[in-house]
Amino acid sequence: MKTIGLTGGIASGKSTVAKIFKEKGALVIDADEVAREVTRAGSGVFNSIVRHFGEEILGEDGAIDRRTLGKIVFSDPDELKVLNRLTHGPIIAKIKNRLRKLRGELGPEHIVVVEAPLLIETGLTSTVELVIVVVADEGKQVERLKTQGFSIDEALARIRAQMIDEDRLEFADHIIENNGSLDGLEAKVQSLFEKLAADNR
């Protein structure tokens, strides 16, 4: 099977790209979904996070409120480092285990996409054959985050807490620019998927 890493900054559109790949027949491993599994209420990682950040990060359902936790860690680089230290190891291990299992189950014609915001920072690039980076202008990222209820300051804090695109692009085998329409994005992804599928035959 062909393994592809998909990454990009917050609100760059990488999740939309992943969804389009999935619609075309690719299997997608979503690092954010894996993170939710790893930090589910009652898990060891969950307990470590609550022990450090306090119960005020919990929602009414007893689960971690990601928005509340995000406000803390994206306004304090040291707290972000703590969260990363607690979560990255288990998340990476789970993704690698899934890839190992899929390699034993799928044929060479299959395409598996690992969608991960921190694909590069966590070293997951070593587990994939190709890296796709989705990029968008900062203004476009802020605009998208505002529609999700973030203030401009919150949006900028999250954007600037991440690796800059120039550094991501050093790892890129393919770049998808996403400042335009959804139709335009779909056309770009369709074209790239067809090329990757043809190369994989």
Describe this structure in words.
Strands 2-3-1-4-5 form a 5-stranded parallel beta sheet, sandwiched between helices. The chain has one domain: Rossmann fold, CATH 3.40.50.300. By secondary structure, it is of the alpha/beta class. It has 9 helices and 5 strands, in the order βαβααααββαααβα. The longest helix has 29 residues, at 77-105. Helix 6 crosses helix 7 (152-160). The N and C termini lie close together (10 Å). It is globular.
List the defining traits of the structure above.
201 residues; alpha/beta; Rossmann fold; five-stranded parallel β-sheet; 9 helices; 5 strands
TL;DR?
Helices cover 53% and strands 13% of the residues. It is an alpha/beta fold. The N and C termini lie close together (10 Å).
CATH evolutionary superfamily: P-loop containing nucleotide triphosphate hydrolases
- The chain-level mean pLDDT equals 95
**SSE pattern, N- to C-terminal:** EHEHHHHEEHHHEH
**What proportion of the residues form beta strands (DSSP E)?**
5-15%
Question: From the coordinates shown, what is the CATH architecture?
Answer: 3-Layer(aba) Sandwich
Could you please say which CATH topology applies here?
A: Rossmann fold
The coarse overall form would be globular
Q: What is the C-level CATH assignment? A: Alpha Beta
Helix content: 40-55%
- The structural class is alpha/beta
